[in-house]
Specification:
The chain is built from 5 helices and 2 strands; from the N terminus they run βαααααβ. With about 130 residues, the chain is mainly α. The longest helix has 22 residues.
């Protein structure tokens, strides 16, 4: 029995990311979001937008494809993880593990962009 990917869950993830980043911006103020911090907050916003666009029916999803938008969600989240590790003051091993995790998530996104070419992405349940 093939694995089914319910794309709607990525839409929920996108909404969660947008609400979370809006709450962080409200809590810390937009004036404090500059430089690397702005990138760390901006990438999850981008991931949230891609997640919402890929998870819920809309003209963009019909034109681009749900899996491609979900792939861009994963790539944005992976890049956000790498950006946060580069600005962390923790041990080098911790930063390396976070960058590696972000790279793995981004590679999953690349696979979604390729339509599951490198490993089975499952059937899409929209």
């Amino acid at each position: 029995m093939p694995h089914m990917v319910n794309i709607r869950y990525f839409g929920y993830l996108g909404v969660f990311l947008l609400v979370l980043t809006a709450a962080l911006a409200a809590l810390f103020g937009l004036g404090n979001l500059h430089g690397a911090i702005a990138v760390q907050i901006g990438l999850p916003v981008l991931a949230g937008l891609f997640g919402v666009a890929g998870g819920f029916a809309n003209p963009l999803r019909e034109r681009v494809g749900a899996l491609r938008l979900v792939g861009l969600t994963d790539i944005s989240l992976g890049a956000s993880m790498a950006a946060s590790a580069l600005t962390a003051t923790d041990a080098l091993v911790f930063r390396a593990v976070v960058v590696l995790g972000g790279a793995c998530l981004a590679l999953i996104g690349v696979n979604y962009l390729a339509g599951g070419r490198f490993f089975d992405a499952g059937d899409v349940d929209v």
